[in-house]
Amino acid sequence: MNAQFEQRLAALDRGDNSRLLRYIRRGIEKESLRITPQGRLAQTPHPAALGSALTHASITTDYSEALLEFITGAGTELEQTLDELDRIHRFVYPRIGDELLWTSSMPCVLERDEDIPVARYGNSNVARMKTIYRIGLGHRYGRLMQTIAGLHYNFSLDDDFWEWLRAETANTLTLQDFKTEQYFSLIRNFHRHAWLLVYLFGASPALCGTFVAGRAHGLQPLGAGTLHAPWGTSLRMGDLGYQSNAQRSIDIPYNSLGDYVGALQRAITEAHPEYQRIGVRDGDNWRQLNASLLQIENEFYATIRPKRVTRSGESPRRALEERGVEYIEVRCLDLDPFEPIGIARPTARFLDAFLLFCLLHQSPASDAPARRLARENLLTVVNRGREPGLHLAQADGTGVELRQLGLRMLDDIAAIGVLLDRARNGVEYRDSIAAQRLKLEQPALTPSARVLEALRAGEGSFFRFAMAQSRLHREHFLARPLDDVSRAHFERLAAESLDAQRAIEQADAVPFETYLANYYAQ
Predict the structure, then answer these.
(1) What pLDDT digit, counting tens, does each position of 338-361 carry?
(2) Residue 95 contacts by C-beta under 8 Å, 6 or more apart in sequence?
(3) Which CATH number belongs to the domain containing residue 440 in this structure?
(4) Residue 450 lies in domain
(5) Measured distance CA(259)–CA(265) in Å, rounded
(6) Which pTM was predicted?
């Protein structure tokens, strides 16, 4: 333990201060590809029965028309959040015909970029901007890259906690500025330690060979069109995922809100020669929103993001700059193919404790070499995380065994788990942290090892494994129809979202070029 962590932990342990951890707010965003019964990417449009992908708060699409995204509300009861995600699945499945939701982060059989339909959101300016942004992603990275799915975990603490911590640390900043400062502190530590989440929860050590056709990859054949990394954990998070030379050239600092927003602003306005060659538009056909390093903030792929709910037409960076950080979004989680909703309850519990570990520990400012070191360690775990005796690099040039470093971190995380359990009068956090300790001691228990074990038991085929899991999960949801009240609720949301889309389209009063210029002028 470092001194700051010991002091903050002791303070939370005094009296009934642990109650301040009772009201963690969480939300989940889960992506899944729609596929045909034969395991091909669905070519059908977003089902109208699900509502408008532009305006529905719970059911939308990401890059592709076939890449569904389910979004829960933010709440303080984890069981209710997970139940909401379950109910969204149960609403969706009866409305997608014989299609299935692909259970793995790495996509199904893919052959040509042009066979991957880009998401469409209607005829309004905001809809056109969303679609053109995705067309631009396709030109910049290839459409295949955009079919990778993940699960995002949104996390925040309530103002009672922040008021207490500000008083405990005798900080004189305003409450919002203090929260923003502390969330950035959390983010810096998250970057240092995110490799642990990739080791514990990475579930994409193999993929279909069609995904890397014609590209150098370094993977080994396993069987039936399958490639894998024998000791890998999460290929989704590595160089085969959402990466490019341009992305790797962007160094975003997280030492202050001003540094962060400023770096994003420069990336959005700095022209990139490779993207200039693509061109912004060909007559009336837009190829991308701009020729800068980033079209918009969300193009920068990060394992974690500071977030603030935006107003209509507002850019994320302006929302952050004007009102500070509201919550953080963890983005390095694979879909768990063994869990119908894509995440297990113990995983969510551990995330709470891990994020508090990142917040309570001392978090010095980071420079470019420190950020490169964190990235290198992450990639080491992505590609070789379960390798016996694997060492991770340290800032002083030495190495430390992954297992030893992870177990030391878990000692501190377990101390947080004790307080979280006390706040809720339970033992769920203790049990979750104990389960993660076993994964460090027995790598065969990790999801990535379990996936490879299942593949080898089924002729080594990633496709057959993922198809079998997808069919099982489909039956799991269809066998549990929604009650009348829940079904009516989602049907009402779908109808209201379609009405909202029509209202937006009718309200547009400026040409698209003006709308886009106004957005960037922020």
Answers:
(1) 999 999 999 999 999 999 999 999
(2) 47, 49, 50
(3) 3.30.590.20
(4) 3-520
(5) 10
(6) 0.96
